[in-house]
Amino acid sequence: MFRRISSLARTGLSAMAAACVALTGPVAEAAPSSKGNLPIVRDAEIEQLVTEYAAPLLKAAGLSRSGIEIILVNSSDFNAFVSGSRIFVNTGAILATETPGQLQGVLAHEMGHLAGGHQLRLRERIENAKVLTAVTSLLGLGVAAAGAATGSREAAQAGTGIMAGGTGLAARDLMAYKRGEEMTADRAALTYLERAGLSGRGLVDSFRNLDRQSFFSRSSGRNYLSSHPMPNDRAAAIEDAARRSPYWSKPDDPRLVERHQLARAKIAAYTGSPGDAKRLFSRDPRSIAAFYGDAIETHLAGSSSSALKKVDALIAARPQNPWFAELKGEILLEAGRGAEAAKAYRTATKLDRSNSSLLRAEIGQALVVSGDPAVLPEAIDLIEEALRRDPSNANAYRFLAMAYGRKGDIGRAELATAEQYWNTGRLTDARIFAARAAQKLAPSTPAGRRARDIVSTPRP
User: Fold this and answer.
1) Contacting residues for 392 by C-beta, under 8 A, at least 6 apart
2) Longest C-alpha distance within the chain, in Å?
3) Were both Cys, which of 103, 106, 211, 219 would link to 97 (CB 3.0–4.6 Å)?
4) What is the value of pTM for the model shown?
């Protein structure tokens, strides 16, 4: 289910190294911080949907064998960016896209950055900008110093102007280069969409929608100060080519449309204010997505009995949907009904075509909450299997620690806690718990070696 992680320790990100952004203007841009911390969201339903959107586009871009990973960022901004082999997609971008095609256009654009090697070239450009800034600063400093030595106020001011001018020139050069990259990625996106047999209408519509919302599209027109062309300009630049595609009028798959709306409902309910999901579907209040959002909001409001009735109605309407069963599991789990929650999660796992490790871990988590000592070995096996497939599932480590603690295996409980902290970027806490675990675990065992690895591994 929808889980927030405070940071992403796996990425050595920097704001300048990320070739971002898909569609946003300069204000909405949410590049990663210099410390690499990002509010990450883990959710099997949305991850599966976005992965399905991306698969044909990765193949069309020649990236299907590149190990590209898609990561969800808990941010309301309409934004996506790439860093390394990862595509980061804000939940706000999913919420704001009204159709699958619009989000596929965003993904195709980011793949244009990846396939075009824009990250590497941007780094080179940044290094060149640093050199230009350094040279002009030294030159300006020399002129200013000479002016001060001779008592020439004009020369000192000229030196200061040279330093400022060099910095401004480097910044404008970077921004102009970045705008060119964005246009190149837009054109590449159209190519990938057509190769995949998808319409480019969604990409054009995204620009039009963004233009209507963009304050900067109504500003004084000093576009050279932005690292991105204005949305309306981008739409105009690609619309003719998009219309020439034989797939321009191809509609979105109705099944994907429903799943897209369900994902939007979930995001609105979990990240917005009470009533946001209802307002999102005010024009279609009887839709399955509207009912889904309402069930989640009811659950979050603390009314488990009412939420269970609503989710049971959803399950009756869509018995093959695994995510409704997963929601039922979450409601039961948070109500302390672990055994029933495990049953619901097992149903979700059987229905899930993606074989999500998150769902398997949730079965184990529910078994831990059940309080039955007899099921602890199965719970541990399920959670550890899930973590082998997906070591970044921080929530699972917490329940693994609980399971080992209840068995009396304090060393492994402390190791699980250390690994949770390690995978969420809290490295000091990770080393503290790993050191405790290392004192209790035999050095020759895999668990003992993992504990010592955490203690001895240098900070990334």
Assistant:
1) 5, 10, 42, 423
2) 88
3) 103
4) 0.80
